[in-house]
Amino acid sequence: IIFIYSSPPEKYELLKTRGISMKLGILASRDAADQASGVIWKRPHIAAASFILLIIIDFAIITETGGNMKGTFITIEGPDGAGKSTAAAHIRDSLEARGIDCLLTREPGGSVIAEQIRSILLDPGNTAMDPVTEAILYAAARRQHLVEVVRPALESGRTVICDRFVDSSLAYQGIGRNLGFDLVWQINEPAIQDTMPDVTILVDIGEEEARRRVKARGVTDRFDLEDRMFRERVHQGFLETARRFPDRIAVIDGEQSEKQVAADSLRVLEQRGLLHGPRPEGTQRTTDRQD
After folding, report:
1. CA 195 – CA 289 distance, rounded (Å)
2. Around Cβ 115, how many Cβ atoms within 10 Å?
3. Are 133 and 159 in contact, with CB atoms under 8 Å apart?
4. Cα separation of 203 and 221, whole Å?
5. Residues 53-60, mean pLDDT to the nearest whole number
6. Distance between CA 109 and CA 144 in Å, rounded?
7. Which of 6, 37, 140, 256 has an alpha carbon 20 to 30 Å from 211's alpha carbon atom?
8. Which residues contact 170 (CB under 8 A, 6 or more apart)?
9. CA Rg, the chain, in Å?
């Protein structure tokens, strides 16, 4: 436990692995004890101490891997054509006008390696890409972006505004590609670990209006080639994320004017108390979990 608390941030992944190994070792001792004399589990005070140790290990890992994030993490989600990128830029400008240090970034991409993965994912020529391959590549880009860009910014106290995050994978690959929420979440768990947004603004738009906007801008990536049924499934996927994570995700009508969408987004941030710069010292962000 002392080792976990005293180690530098770059060892978090190793710490998590070691913590899990410690836990498995404690649990495995039960089988060994049963096969031998049964000493540990026939003595309630030793069994209780073992379980308390498991809890302490979990607390140490969670504290050291997610509890040191001082900044605010805001994500903007929505189907293609919803206007989320424009909304993200408006939010950035409004927060900076209040003196809040912001970083506006995007997924997939946001770092050199992640942008290279993005080019593969969105290339209109890659229509033969398997859905699971697609989901894994998105998770890989997300992980690289997170460790290179997002986490360092949050640790320094900056407000990070990210155009798309894991909810897009749940909607596009989970529902759009019919892989299911559970599988896509499992693929992304090692990528995001306990780093989840403080708030997610879902810019909602109907499939017909989204299709009209996408058509007006022309084909720009592989997803623009998808049919109406796929886009409708993605739309329903985003609505499902909002139903599953209502405490984190706020839904905004994307068919309003850009100005109104921006105003509604800022209202959400104000209601969540996120318009006042870095998070107070000693507070921790909450995490969503798929159980």
Report:
1. 11
2. 15
3. no
4. 20
5. 46
6. 9
7. 140
8. 181, 184, 185, 237, 240, 241
9. 22
> Distance between CA 38 and CA 81 in Å, rounded?
63
- Residue 121 · residue 137 · CB < 8 Å: yes
Which residue in the block uniquely carries the two structure tokens 């006042």? 276
Q: DSSP string of 165-228?
A: -HHHHIIIIIIISS--HHHHHHHHHHHHTT---SEEEEEE--HHHHHHHHHHH---SGGGG--H
Say what percent of the chain tops pLDDT 90. Answer: 57
Q: With the C-alpha atoms ordered 263, 268, 273, 277, is the resulting torsion angle positive or negative?
A: negative
Per-residue model confidence (pLDDT) at position 285: 55
Counting residues of the chain whose pLDDT is more than 70, the rounded percentage is: 71
Confidence of residue 207 (pLDDT cuts 50, 70, 90): confident
Q: Stretch 260-279: mean pLDDT, rounded?
A: 86
**Residue 280 DSSP symbol:** P
pLDDT mean over 130-148? 98
Residue 142 pLDDT > 70: yes
> Cβ distance 118 to 134 under 8 Å?
no
Q: Are strands 72-77 and 249-253 parallel, antiparallel or unpaired?
A: unpaired
What would the DSSP string read from start to end of 104-117? EEESS-SSHHHHHH
CA distance 64 to 286: 14
> CB atoms < 10 A from the CB of 110, how many?
25
Q: Which two tokens stand for residue 221?
A: 């990536």
pLDDT of residue 60: 44
Distance in angstroms (rounded) separating the CA atoms of residues 150 and 262: 23
Calculate mean pLDDT across residues 67-71: 73
